[in-house]
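step 3/5: co-fold with FE2/S2 (inorganic) cluster
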Amino acid sequence: PGCPSLLHCLESQKIDVAYQCREGYCGACRATLVSGNVQYNEEPLAFVRDGEILLCCSKPNGNISINLK
Ligand code: FES
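step 4/5: write tokens
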């Protein structure tokens, strides 16, 4: 909440997150969604499997828990 994307949120809390393009096409920011739901700012172009999310272009819908790689 209050962040443009999950990637921004994590960075603002000094958590190191892998990323490259920040625009949803490289897939570098992939993380596992453990619980909760996210909402994409834009439909991501990178391939995302079920249970995975792209941090750079999604925002949490309520409380979520994720596993970073
Ligand atoms: S940083 Fe490239 S898809 Fe997220």
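step 5/5: annotate
The mean pLDDT is 94.
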